[in-house]
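task queued by scheduler; priority normal; single chain, no ligands, no partner chains; default sampling; output format set to structure tokens
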Amino acid sequence: MTDILIETTSEDGYASRSIVGDFELKLDGDGEDGPQTNPTLVATYAGCWLPALRAAAEQWDVEDLGRVEIDSEADLDDDGDLEAIRFKVKTEADLGEDKDEIVDQAHEFCHVGGALRDELLADVVLEDDAF
């Protein structure tokens, strides 16, 4: 059984349109008609990592993280391929002495991170009690 089905089309050039459930996603290799693929991948990764962080915090008895912000950075090699991803994470909640364990568990919970090459797993710097 197929769990995910996405239709992607391109009429010409490097722009594409994907139907993802009830939503339309436009990407463009040139960045003219939509975001490029590498920044979209980094945004998708951060968008997955954030709820993974919330779930991990709950596992460590942090009931509510409150506000969470992730500033994502990535490096490209000379061919334009991703070679490093970094997340600077701020949480409203104080995570106490379990902060490193919560970050490790968030990595385990994040499905997008699980699909990436090991060298692309985000290097995370987390500042708790930040707001």
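post-processing summary
- DSSP finds three helices and six strands in the chain.
- Residues 1-35 form one domain.
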